[in-house]
Write a structure and sequence with these properties.
There is one protein chain. The protein is of the alpha/beta class. The protein has eight helices and eleven strands. The chain has a five-stranded parallel beta sheet with strand order 2-1-3-4-5, sandwiched between helices. A three-stranded antiparallel beta sheet has the order 6-7-8, with no helix packed on it. Helix 2 runs parallel beside helix 3 and helix 6 packs across helix 8. The longest helix has 15 residues. About 30% of the residues are buried. Keywords: Cytoplasm, DNA-binding, Phosphoprotein, Transcription, Transcription regulation, Two-component regulatory system. This is DNA-binding response regulator. One of its GO terms (biological process) is positive regulation of DNA-templated transcription. It is found in: Cytoplasm.
């Protein structure tokens, strides 16, 4: 049974999430502040954390940093904040995805399912990933149909397909592919993502797999 730690300071929301998750066969623990959440996570070892950013004792981003000091478990952020900057900070700190309040339980459940079933590609293997009608072999750096990519296109594509379903922030992609000096050069990403879509998407203007989350980042949808 998947263990989920839900962290939020709204008692009604905590109760509603606990009821809905338990009804779907998840094991649930709750915490109403960041300090309790960090202690619960250390003692209980959840498989996933659902975390509100607006906590009474510390910012949710601090909780993410605390968790990432010792665990790589998935973290889904809940945010009532309209400004995408807070969500970007959470993603850069190590969150895996976000849901904006108010949200429907079905939306949250879909995100939970996505992060819990996310395939982890083991290092040293020969991972093959399907992107639409193309098979991408990350080890051999080949794509079916004779599609050729530049080294930069490969690096960008690999970061996305190794994390299926995960929203990866612009900052993380720019830092990983071009280096920390390029974190504000978002036009690089737009240009290279457009090139990848032209090569791999059936309809580059309406991509089904290499998706943009405006102002946030990109994700690969299998």
């Amino acid at each position: 049974m998947t263990r989920i730690l839900v962290v939020d300071d709204e008692p009604q929301l905590l109760r509603a999430l606990r009821v809905n998750l338990v009804a779907r066969q998840y094991e649930v623990a709750v915490a109403a502040d960041g300090g309790t959440a960090l202690r619960q996570a250390a003692d209980w070892h959840p498989d996933l954390v659902v975390l509100d950013l607006g906590l009474p004792d510390m910012d949710g981003v601090e909780v993410i940093h605390g968790l990432r000091g010792w665990t790589r478990i998935p973290i889904i952020v809940l945010s009532g904040r309209a400004d995408s900057h807070d969500k970007v900070d959470a993603l850069d700190a190590g969150a895996d995805d976000y849901v904006t309040k108010p949200f429907g339980i079905d939306e949250l459940l879909a995100r939970i399912r996505a992060v819990t079933r996310r395939a982890t590609v083991s290092e040293g293997g020969s991972p093959r990933v399907q992107v639409g009608s193309f098979e991408v072999d990350l080890a051999a750096k080949t794509i079916s149909g004779g599609i050729r990519l530049t080294p930069t296109e490969w690096h960008l594509l690999e970061l996305l397909v190794r994390n299926p379903g995960k929203l990866i922030s612009q900052r993380q992609l720019l830092t990983e592919v071009w280096g920390p000096a390029y974190v504000k050069e978002s036009h690089y990403l737009r240009q290279y993502m457009a090139q990848l879509r032209r090569k791999l998407e059936a309809d580059p203007g309406r991509p089904a797999h290499l998706l943009t989350e405006p102002g946030m980042g990109y994700r690969f949808q299998p």
